[in-house]
Amino acid sequence: MDFFNILGVIASDLEEVEKEIDENIKSPVPLVYEISKYILGSGGKRIRPSVLILSSGACGLDNGRKRIASAAALELIHTASLLHDDVVDDANLRRGKTSSNIMWGNTASVLVGDFMLARALGLIQSCGNLELIKVVTDAAAKLAEGQVLEVMSGMNMIEVTEEVCFGIIENKTASLIESCGKVGAILAGAKNNVKETFADFGFNLGMAFQLIDDALDYSAAQDEFGKEVGHDLLEKKMTLPLVYSLREATTKEKSRVNKFLENDHLNNDDLPFVLDIVKTYEGVNQTKNVARRYVDKAKHSIVSLTQNNYKESLDLLADYVIERRK
Fold this sequence. Notes:
Layout: H1 3-6, H2 11-24, H3 30-40, H4 47-58, H5 65-89, E1 93-94, E2 97-98, H6 100-104, H7 106-126, H8 130-155, H9 162-187, H10 192-216, H11 222-225, H12 231-234, H13 240-248, H14 251-262, H15 271-280, H16 283-301, H17 309-323
Antiparallel strand pairs: 1-2
Helix pairs in contact: 2-5, 3-7, 4-5, 4-9, 4-17, 5-7, 5-8, 5-9, 8-9, 9-10, 10-16, 13-15, 13-16, 16-17
């Protein structure tokens, strides 16, 4: 399933979003623009703007600058979080490229992330809708909370449960995509129940998207996925493929894995054993099965809506999330 064919109905809108983003990352300080362009050009799929514009179109609004401005704002918030994330994680790669914090240092990366957040809030404010502002700022706050939860979980990986993993995903990923669905409906002047319908779609799509991301971290090839296999584990991030696998592992296997997790710094020599545990006990498949349930929820939430090209693309986008390999 080709991602860009799915989004064909909004291709021209997404081009306008890119122009809006580029206009809003311009700065008299050259390094701000340089770092911004670098991370924004590193191959992101623009899931968030796509959900917003498709949701708006499915509600009957297929034109207007506010759609473009809001979509650009939400992508900037997401991108700012990536810059901050890479600093917190001391990451080396982002989507197959050297991460910004390695290229320009932590300080510059954090400050450019702050710049993007400020620009995003300015774009949202320009739309002149208080409900929209609240939805976006609430989502941005949840995203930050999710990042803090993830940091806390890294301090004691052995104690991380399925519930904690879901809490991180809900806050860090699903909340922002949820807001994209709702903002699209708000801009279209939809009724409250319809706004919640698209919020539900975005939330469930976001949950599935991150679950597949976590599964791919244990199964995808680096040249496809853009980071090393087991990257999350090496960054002391406990995700569901390992949580599910440890439930089935023997006492001896659990003990050995726990010794790895107790270390301040995991090393590459430990990784093959952990990867083998996840493969043996099918942690990846279990995680993908959970993701499928969220995709089913997403599709079910919009099943009663009037069929049009935008709704069809939302359905296809949900299918793509499950099938993607990078």
